[in-house]
Structure formats: C-alpha cells, structure tokens
Amino acid sequence: MSDLKTALVTGADRGLGFAIAKRLLGEGFRVFAGKFNSEYTLLEDLQKDYPELYIVELDVKNPEHMKAAAAEIEKISGKLELLVSNAALMGMRTEKPSDVIDGNRGFDPELMAAFFMTNSYAAPMLVDTFLPLLRKGEMKRLFFTSSEISSVRLMRRTGSFRYGMSKTALNLGVRMIYNTLRPEGFTFRLYQPGWMKHQFPDGSLAKTAIVDPADSAKEAVRQMLEDRLDEDRLVLTDYLGRELSF
Prior knowledge:
Layout: E1 6-9, H1 15-26, E2 30-35, H2 42-47, E3 53-57, H3 63-76, E4 82-85, H4 109-136, E5 141-145, H5 161-181, E6 187-192, H6 213-225, E7 236-238, E8 243-244
C-alpha cells in the first residue's frame, strides 16, 4: 500500500465523471473509476498514461458491485480520501411516458423507480458501503453531482419529473448524510455542473448544450480539493463558483 491519496469516481465512463477522474489523476491521486457502459473505452485509453487509474465495474444500483469495489480499494490502498458520487440517469433518447402530466400518457412507475434508484438512493448506499475506508483517510471529503433543476425554490419546468424529482431527493439525502457525518469531520461538496455537452464513445462532444465536461470538471475538482472557511454549512455551488438556492 502506498501513501497516495485515493478517490472513487462513479459514472466515470464519459462526460463529467471521466473528466473528473482524469483531472484527479493529474493532481496525483490514485483513482478508482466506476465503469458502467461497455460501449465506452475512454477509461481504458486513459489508463495507458496513468498506471494509478483502476477501472472497476460499478453499476450504482448493484450493492454487490459496491462491495467488490470496496474490497479492491481495501486491498490496493487500504483507505479512501475522496468519494465522488457522480453516476446519474438523465433521460432517454426516445422519451417514454411518465415525464409530463397531460392526462393522456400516464406514468411509468418502473422507469421512475430506476431514476430514483440511480440518482437518489445510490448516494447513501455508496457512503454506507465505503464509510469504513473513508474513515481511514485523512481528507474525508464527499462530493455529489446534483443539478440545476433540483431546487424546489427555483423550479419553473413542467416536465422532466423523473430527473428533477430524483435530484431533489438527492439533495435531501446529502443533507441527511451531512447531518450524520459532519460531526465526525467529514466535509461535503454538492455541485451543479451546468448543461453539459454529451460525450460520444470516440470522445467527441455533441454540439447541443453549453458546457464542456472538461471545463466543469476543472471547477468541480478545484472545489473538491480546496478547503472552505464555512465547512459547517452545506451549500450547492455551480460550475461558475456561485452558490445556488436548493
């Protein structure tokens, strides 16, 4: 076991998670990157340049995947400094019912449950599974990727029920984790990454949306590595460094 700081990043196949993993490697971290989508090989390509990148199979809906990843981190590093809970289900290319209320199409409870399982409940499951390793680390920092549509106060949309509600539930879950672990010295980052461009398997980015995942990751890593003067206050911050209502 080495003295390298160790981070786990979920949803690291592409986009923000991939960019965060790459930047943390550049900061000298050993990174365990959660892989879910076999269509993407960006992590495998990155591994050629960074021997301290470890790819772990990690569907955040699967407790057995979490246990296996924890066992590997225990074996290789013996501790975990930073947990980046980033994996999310955002939407389908061909939208099914249950994302709008119009009295005609109806809601799909199984699809809604899948969003909540991935976007909301996975976070406390991750923390609970990796807490013994996090307690051994010095940094004790937890990072959660939220969304601009998670704020009850700022919500103006009439659709995106699955994603919006599940991310609002995530915020509440993070608050409860904060209430539980802040007294132990854990620190928290709740982050809104912006409307990011979709990343394709070849690494290229879609022309739609606004934010390059690499740019959002740069700000995310800055926030997750820098200490704040007000760590006793849980805040939601965005990719421009602003504090948002949630």
